[in-house]
């Protein structure tokens, strides 16, 4: 057996969210590839107009005939959300456990992409090309989170996916520590592991600890109670329903994504002891002190149910003085301002707000430091490869792994190919990586021309000038002008028009200029007016037409 | 004495930052006004291209002949930063204590605005129109923070400004609780008070508590140490220098704003026992284990010293493996992502990062709940008017005031005029308020046409089409097109050109259309191509020229 075993992240190594992990086996040029997860992340002000952002899969798409399959560790958006966008470029079989498969199929129903999705059981063992895979059940803020033991002729990798060690996960079993210990005892070459909460001391806390707290909080409420959480957190839905029932309240769902996850969960036997949730219109008819409404929108998303309720624009649900909203979710960094705006809107309605700042209403799904230490003790890898973190998280995680006596730790950002074996682990190659933005109907590069143009327009405004010249180089018609993002109501473009006319006149007096030279003189003259009067340097182009 | 005493916030009531408070005395129509503070806030993605944001002073600018003066409580940007931009519209005398006056004069040196700045002493008492003012020294994260007791014939208002109760402020005296108690005993009609940290339990902690902690942290460092904090926090500069000296290190400053505050402080007798800070070029020559560099840039600002150092672009200072950066400042909400990018850059250099998450390196300058309670016990106002907070902070503050036995609490957002007396406090009028953005050389409305145009361009891209028609309505030249933010490298505009040509042809076959109608057909045709091919709806305009 010649060749190497390599790990290559194209997403998620250098950021939290947007995972795309590759494992390659064999000699360079003949490597066969396994992909683990294919997720999205959300855009920010640097990607104006984009819906979601995902890894650029160009490197593996160019080698797709040697891509043996894609395995999904779990059903969070940052692990499977890019499948509808990118699968056509990959064309490989997709492997998922039942719940994850249900969630993915619902997403694919909305697009015209039909990958083969092979259902694999929890704790299943199966082969994809040269990779022998065993799923190991962990716990996380969604049903069916899996680590994958990837056995190869050059050694075993434990890819953890997202996880925590929750002694009371509410939905699904506890983490299969026996399996982790067994694989560890067989010998693990490398562990590729979640870094999200490496700066958080202690343990993440148990999902089961929330029932008493939520029951108490809801018991103290007099009006309507709305609880917002992540739709995929099925255990949280069960806990909220139980806390509501303990207070003689019925629970409904508001928001499409919640209904989809509820359906996917029940389809797979989860929520079996939780009565069917009421629909939005049904819950709207309950007496205010008998209702709990679980809503989408914990991050302040303007299209989600809670924002529409707060703005008074929801068809069935209103909130008013005396009602309570519980934010049972973490604040994703970058969403602080949107969440604050939402909470201010709710405050204006007289609604009381409960958050994890003041009450126990949320626990994280990712391992804090004590759990990471426990995982290293169970698995005992020779090499630690932190992923699912920004650089500062991955570096801290590598330090923690070394403190746990792991002999080697490699910090590799997206595009860095890590040789796991044979020999010492090392970054052996850097391959192209990048980000794509879903923009309207297509995917565009985040650092491409279209996005760059938008960012330029954003800061400087846009100016387009049309000048029509006759054969003598004289204006055949008055100049026309579009100024976007530059003029206030009532402000006139006359000084620009005058400058353009003067530029045409003066260029006519020079030695005969070609059209490009005249256009450039016009461009400089028009732009100068904005710079001098307004202090702005608009993105300026000139349509010079000769008739 | 007829008329009323009113309070009218135009900035800062509904947001943290950008303060503009007005007090009016007399019958409506003859009211004489006092302004307290005139600050800025920082723009975000919703104000593309803007440098800073400030309150729209139109209401008071229209009445400036009855604006008697502007008093500045302290020298933070959100309290005086708008003076250089707005004073010409107000033309009133400005009152400030010595340090605040020094800071303001340095800002005004950069612009051509020369208000009369009347220096008033700490604890000074002076009259502005019908208002009898007494300054009361408090503590805050800057020298010379003042509350103002505003005495009128209709009662006394205590306007707190920004404050905390710090038993060891390092620079300046402790808060003058005797004066607060004395004014309280005279009887206070209303207290207009800082809400920033109303959700924070306990007390804010003392500036003096940082010396031991910073001395210990720096003592544990082997390489160069950089500390980033707010430039205006003169006490922090003194503490950092003392912690450096205790470890046999010299301290330098990197960043223009730090040098300006250092100069303003020393000019007024502060930092007298702190040796002169080294300049950037001097500190660059010190042995790495003998240097502490205080840097601007705690919020990740790309133009500040720390970002330039992290990017390797600073002329005199570098950081490398083994060095440490201490973030001795809070994270201003909205800056999380920029700070994370900065910290990741530093991590990539091998620099260790210390933040308030892991060590005692910062205390807030605003009152936590226990301090608010103590202030209400000292002042005992009849009416509480929370300011300097988002709505959720102000509502929580009003609840806390009621818990403190304050008989009335009024939550008033920007533009809400509160009658403080005579009679029950109430919002009696709503006046126009808004925000202006400093944009190039001028101020534009945040919700005006120029900003709206930029936001539209941002999400959709911009398309401008030029068609030149002859007198028969035929194209006299090929159409020209500018598409900004729409096409990727190598993508061609041919389909759009073809659609434009077809639109001109087909409109030529209809009953004679006027130019506007043809232009509209061209606009719709061009836009449709982008919608159908790319799924985008660009902001589209057409320059139709008839020759």
Task: Compose a concise summary of this entry.
2 copies of one chain form a homodimer. Chain A has 547 residues and is an alpha/beta fold.
Give descriptors for this structure.
homodimer, 547 residues, alpha/beta, eight-stranded mixed β-sheet, seven-stranded mixed β-sheet, 16 helices
Your description of this structure?
2 copies of one chain form a homodimer. Chain A is of the alpha/beta class and 547 residues long. The first copy, chain A, contains 16 helices and 27 strands. In chain A, strands 8-7-6-3-2-1-21-22 form an 8-stranded mixed beta sheet. In chain A, strands 9-10-11-12-13-19-20 form a 7-stranded mixed beta sheet. Chains A and B meet through helix 11, helix 13, strand 24, helix 14 and strand 25 of A and helix 11, helix 13, strand 24, helix 14 and strand 25 of B.
């Amino acid at each position: 057996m010649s060749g190497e075993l390599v790990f290559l992240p194209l997403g998620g190594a250098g950021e939290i969210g947007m995972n795309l992990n590759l494992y390659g086996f064999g000699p360079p040029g003949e490597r066969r590839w396994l992909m683990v997860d294919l997720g999205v992340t959300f855009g920010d002000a640097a990607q104006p107009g984009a819906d979601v952002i995902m890894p650029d899969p160009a490197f593996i798409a160019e080698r797709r005939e040697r891509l043996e399959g894609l395995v999904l560790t779990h059903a969070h958006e940052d692990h499977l959300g890019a499948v509808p966008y990118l699968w056509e470029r990959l064309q490989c079989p997709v492997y998922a456990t039942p719940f994850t498969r249900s969630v993915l199929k619902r997403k694919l129903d909305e697009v015209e992409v039909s990958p083969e999705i092979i259902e694999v059981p929890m704790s299943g063992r199966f082969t994809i090309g040269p990779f022998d895979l065993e799923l190991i059940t962990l716990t996380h803020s969604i049903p069916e989170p899996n680590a994958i033991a990837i056995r190869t002729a050059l050694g075993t990798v434990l890819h953890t996916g997202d996880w925590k060690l929750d002694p009371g996960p509410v939905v699904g079993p506890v983490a299969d520590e026996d399996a982790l210990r067994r694989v560890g005892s067989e010998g693990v070459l490398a562990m590729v592991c979640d870094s999200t909460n490496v700066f958080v001391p202690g343990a993440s806390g148990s999902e089961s600890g929330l029932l008493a707290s939520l029951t108490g909080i809801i018991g103290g409420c007099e009006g309507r109670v709305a609880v917002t959480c992540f739709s995929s957190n099925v255990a949280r839905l069960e806990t909220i329903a139980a806390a509501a029932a303990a207070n003689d309240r019925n629970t409904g769902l508001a928001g499409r994504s919640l209904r989809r996850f509820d359906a996917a969960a029940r389809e797979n036997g989860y929520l079996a002891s939780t009565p069917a949730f009421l629909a939005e219109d049904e819950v709207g008819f309950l007496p205010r002190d008998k209702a709990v409404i679980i809503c989408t929108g914990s991050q302040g998303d303007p299209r989600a149910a809670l924002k529409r309720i707060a703005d008074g624009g929801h068809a069935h649900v209103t909130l008013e003085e005396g009602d309570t909203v519980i934010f049972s979710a973490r604040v994703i960094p970058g969403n602080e301002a949107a969440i604050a705006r939402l909470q201010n809107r709710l405050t204006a309605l007289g609604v009381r707000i409960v958050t994890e700042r003041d009450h126990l209403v949320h626990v994280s799904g990712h391992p804090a430091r004590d759990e990471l230490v426990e995982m290293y003790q169970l698995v005992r890898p020779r090499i630690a490869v932190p992923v699912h973190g920004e650089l500062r998280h991955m570096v801290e995680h590598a330090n923690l792994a070394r403190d746990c006596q792991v002999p080697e730790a490699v910090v590799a950002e997206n595009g860095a190919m890590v040789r796991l074996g044979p020999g010492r682990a090392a970054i052996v190659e850097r391959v192209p990586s990048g980000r794509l933005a879903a923009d309207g109907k297509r995917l565009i590069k985040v650092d491409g021309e279209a996005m760059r143009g938008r960012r330029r327009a954003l800061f400087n405004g846009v100016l387009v000038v049309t000048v029509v010249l006759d054969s003598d180089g004289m204006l055949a018609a008055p100049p026309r002008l579009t100024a976007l993002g530059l003029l206030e109501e009532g402000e006139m473009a006359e000084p620009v028009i005058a400058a353009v006319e003067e530029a045409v006149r003066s260029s006519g007096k020079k030695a005969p200029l070609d059209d490009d030279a005249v256009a450039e003189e016009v461009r400089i003259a028009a732009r100068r007016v904005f710079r001098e009067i307004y202090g702005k340097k608009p993105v300026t182009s000139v349509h010079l037409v000769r008739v």
